[in-house]
Design brief:
Length: 460
């Protein structure tokens, strides 16, 4: 814990070393500097530094350590919700570090740690390559990949964490560390799925995959058909090859202008999917779902950058309240539980309740993999609603909890990246992985300087 005197010294040292990259509560622009992507989270750090280089990160770590502050790296603040109080922390805004280089020969993207998927997918596609991006273009690649990274090709190529080939990290003792399979292998292991507890990542090298186009889109039915459609989707997931990643979803679209007129203010049950292959094979796979005669069908061939539009995520920061959990299965009784908790006629305040299909490569551990070697669950639930006021946040939060409680019989644990409440990190890992992650934390950050959203405490 830092005293007022230490904080004043820290701020003057930050300002001396970092000038205009420092924001403090007394300055104009403070509210903007401390604001995360999730506008429902009111962050109050001691000070904010907007890093523009790895040297800036080093300076922040050194001064913070000296003055008793903690360091909380943030890419965008998509997952600002679970982080503990920032009262004694420097919020280290990484968003200005967003340069990306593609090495087509080695099928690699080298990116600074604040880069978002929208900075990567276009340049990669120019070379016929794709990274393992998720549903939103403005999610930061680093936070996403450190916490798992469940994207549109997860069943074919696994989670994004295991596509990290190297990381540049500033450790808590101020050392710049290169981590890959041969150098600092413990740190490299922990970063890949263990979250942001182990150091500040300043750059990543990611594997890219030779995917030029996918057959992808959304099928919409009126939400009254939720049970029938989700049951058919669940049956379908049992038969599809690993080239198909999909989700079933209850969608309650708000009556706002940004939403196309045909969808605005309506409630649907939808299936979204991305199929690696051509239109003929994609159509063949989709046939059993099309037999249910969807009201709208947007499927077509899309290049990988098009995948970031598929899920209709908000294009700009919004206030949201949500949470996720892993499910071992999503059988008839679970579907019924979801429909009773948040389906048609329940006046659900949730914008979205989605269940993503896992398995395939996501479920296969390889010796080369990191802390999230495989996801031992068949499906992933994520529910979210708008939380523009404290009252809305409470109402949505209650419904999120009710849905999770209704699905408790199928609970298969938590994933770092989809857990948006303060949660015991032990629930996110097996006992062995958690023990090893705590040992890595003790090796690289024994004083617990780095403050992740889901903190792994150092081993004692
Ligand atoms: C609209 C939306 C869509 C999403 N879609 C998907 C999806 O399709 N698939 C999926 O898997 N997840 C998805 N997520 C979850 C998302 O992956 C997590 O919220 C992730 O943590 C976001 O990373 P961020 O850096 O943007 O967020 P932040 O809140 O900035 O970061 C989250 C945490 O990552 C760590 N971190 C970030 N940068 C660094 C760094 N440079 N060094 C060390 N640690 C760091 C920190 O611990 C930080 O608390 C989605 C979330 C939202 C809100």
């Amino acid at each position: 814990m830092t005293t007022a005197g230490q904080l004043a010294t820290a701020v003057s040292k930050f300002e001396h070393r970092l000038g205009g990259r420092v924001a403090t509560p007394r300055q104009a622009g403070w509210d903007e500097a401390r604001r995360p992507w999730n506008l429902a989270v009111d962050q109050h750090p001691a000070v904010v530094v907007r890093a523009e280089s790895a040297d800036d990160v080093l300076a922040v770590i050194d001064i913070a350590r000296e003055q008793g502050l903690r360091v909380a790296p943030q890419g965008t603040g998509h997952s600002a919700g679970p982080r503990a109080s920032l009262e004694h922390s420097v919020l280290l805004d990484m968003s200005r570090l967003n340069q990306v280089e593609i090495d087509p020969g080695r099928r690699r993207a080298r990116l600074q740690a604040g880069a978002q998927w929208q900075h990567v997918v276009g340049p990669a596609a120019d070379h016929g390559l794709a990274g393992l991006s998720g549903s939103a273009g403005d999610v930061c690649v680093t936070g996403y990949a450190l916490g798992g990274g469940v994207g549109w090709m997860v069943r074919r190529y696994g989670v994004a964490a295991n596509s990290i080939r190297a990381a540049e990290v500033v450790a808590a003792d101020g050392r710049s560390v290169h981590a890959d399979a041969d150098t600092e292998p413990d740190l490299f292991w922990a970063l890949r799925g263990g979250g942001g507890s182990f150091g500040v990542v300043t750059a990543l090298e990611l594997e890219l995959f030779p995917v030029r186009e996918l057959y992808a889109g959304v099928l919409f039915w009126p939400q009254e058909r939720a049970t029938e459609v989700l049951t058919a989707w669940h049956e379908w997931t049992a038969s599809v090859p690993e080239e198909v990643s999909s989700l079933g979803r209850l969608l309650n679209l708000p009556p706002i202008e940004e939403i196309p007129e045909a969808l605005r203010g309506r409630s649907f049950v939808v299936v979204e999917a991305a199929l690696i292959g051509d239109e003929a094979s994609g159509s063949e796979q989709l046939a059993p779902l099309r037999e249910l005669r969807p009201e709208m069908d947007t499927f077509g061939m899309v290049p990988p950058p098009g995948l970031t539009a598929l899920h209709m995520d908000p294009p700009a920061p919004v206030p949201g309240e949500g949470n996720g959990m892993l499910l071992d299965d999503f059988p008839e009784q679970a579907i019924e539980a979801v429909v009773v908790a948040a389906g048609p006629g329940t006046d659900s305040p949730l914008v979205s309740l989605e269940v993503r299909h896992l398995g395939g490569a996501a479920g296969r551990a390889e010796p080369s993999h990191g802390a999230l070697a495989a996801i031992d669950a068949g499906y992933l639930l994520y529910t979210v609603g708008m939380a523009a006021t404290a009252e809305m946040k409470r109402t949505v939060g209650r419904r999120v909890d009710e849905v999770q409680a209704a699905l408790a019989p199928w609970d298969a644990g938590r994933l770092v990246g989809f857990t948006e409440r303060p949660t015991d990190p032990a629930l996110m890992f097996s006992d062995d992985v958690y023990r090893r992650a705590r040992e890595v934390k003790a090796k690289y950050d024994p004083g617990n300087l780095i403050q992740a959203n889901h903190e792994i405490p150092p081993a004692e």
